[in-house]
Fold this protein.
Amino acid sequence: MHGQQPASGDAAKGTSLRSEFADDPDMREIVEFFVNDLSTRIDAIRAAFDTDDRSRLKTLAHQLKGAAGGYGFPTIGFAAADVERELIAAEADIAAIDDKVDELLRLCRAALAPRS
Amino acid sequence: MESTTNNIGSERLPRLLAIDDSELIHKILRVRLQHEQLELHSAMSGADGLRLAKELRPEIILLDIELGDMEGFAVLQALKADAETRDIAVIFISAFSEPVDRVRGLDLGAVDFITKPFEVIELTARVRSILRLQSAMNMLAVKAQIDGLTGLWNRKYFDSRLESEFAESKRHGRPLSLIMADIDKFKSLNDGYGHPFGDLVLERFAKLLSSGRVSDVPCRYGGEEFGIIVPSGTVEEAREVADRLRERLANERWPRHEDLRVTASFGVADISCIESSMLPRAMVEAADRALYAAKHGGRNRVETAPPIVTAPLRKSA
């Protein structure tokens, strides 16, 4: 059995991020699906950011905002909400939200990291 | 209300249709709602959702506000604009949590609003509460159309059903018949044997009426008068139905009154008995005239309204 620290605590320390539902037998399978799918999403977010594709980036962030919490990764959901909010609010150039996107990507990677 | 009997039986599992453009959300819903007594269906776009809503007639729709092809609000408006889907309970789901969106959704006729990510217990509790409310409303809607004493459809249902069958019959050019039946000398039965006996007669006659063909629609028209709608039935078929009923009632044995015979008179009319421009009401009147002819002819008999013979109206060339 793994430790029962909240997922956000792990994330803050930069270690791996574990789903809140990792031990829920109903959820295990789809949490795995979500985590596997995340690597594709990380690439897509990176690509949208690099090509300055604001609307694509907004869609990707929006989807994560709605879904991540449901898979037991609320911090990813909040980070995605931050990115979306900045994109809606700021007409400024996409580089200005660099740190928000980085934070989102960092959390996504943390969820991908192999759990010890 | 299009069912031909007033049984609330033959129930299927309630259907829930989720309309969301993210497969991630559908996956969560399938897992989170798997233990509910529900049949779950998914649509990935607004257009698909509208099509499935018409096809499946779900009890509940979970509708995402931000869909790829159209806004959830537009889907809701389309659902509400269509009589076939208007009564489906729509719950908005959205990662938007702005009050202005929630208010807009509720104003357009959504029954509830759930924010993503879902709190599992909240989601299931809201779905359950809506299903409970719906089943209570359905029961009331059915009850409001059932006669308390006989369990037959009541006059209100009779009127609306006759109107819709009348329209169907005209549209598809198929026959439609109506039988009006009235228990003979009911007042003297009531006076002579007491009201409880009168009620027993009504109940038994109602039972005879509903033991017939399932496609026939027996209704209590009022007092001791009954109307039986015979969809797609010709006047000859309706006449046979009426005569069987007449005979069965006349042969009925009554408790403590072995020698008593209770009879009824019947009037039959079909759609050819009235002018094509007339309203369904005219069919009732035609059947009623035939019924009174049966009464005057000595009761315990079936009379048929004469068809209207009209030369086809043609403009001369």
In short: The longest helix of chain B spans residues 120-143. The CA atoms of residues 155 and 222 of chain B lie 7 Å apart. Confidence is low (pLDDT under 50) at residues 1-10 of chain B. The beta strands of chain B are 15-19, 39-43, 60-64, 89-94, 112-115, 176-183, 217-222, 225-231, 264-270, 302-304.
